[in-house]
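chain below, 218 aa
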Amino acid sequence: MNKKILLLEDDPILAETLLDLLEARGFDVTHVEDGLKALDATYDGHFDLMILDVNVPKLDGFDFLSEMRQSGESTPALFITARTDIASVARGFEVGADDYIKKPFDFEELTIRIDALLRKAYRTRQERIPLGELHFAVATEELYHDGESLPLPPADRRLLARLVRERDRIVPKEELLAILGDGEEGSEGALRVHISRLRKLGLPIETRKGIGYRLAAT
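prediction:
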């Protein structure tokens, strides 16, 4: 499953260039031109990374990210901006940025920073995370056994990615239900079925009754 990136950029030429660059690397990119559309996009789905300009209409990048962090959203965020003064850099990190790159920037440097942030989201410097006899590939969110990729349904893959990010911590069942979505797929019974399928692959997932699930670090 391709990693999803939210791109907030109102410069059409730069946005088109970034779209071409990111999509060529296999990312699924949602592009918006103003902060309010960015908020709407986050209501509609989950993102693995946010790339944000600051000087955008309606709600600037700083205020957008501040709102996201206050709501409990922890998705890694990278500012790309022409604001180069120290006060703006400080403001960016104050509202919750994970990285800050000044325009104009080298596109190769941007991709290096993106890869580093995606690894950071999984609290690792490794490209693959060992899970018993299995390995989880950070870049593609695929599960491997003896070097072979194990096919996973999309919902199972989404659940596994969240459990891996929070490994050795209890993930509340409400968060996992939100990942599954609304309707029958998002019921507690369905969640137990998905967890059971992941366990059958050999993943050490523990149940904390009435609370949630925990993927034991190995």
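The two ends are 24 Å apart (CA to CA). The chain has a mean pLDDT of 86.
thats it, cya
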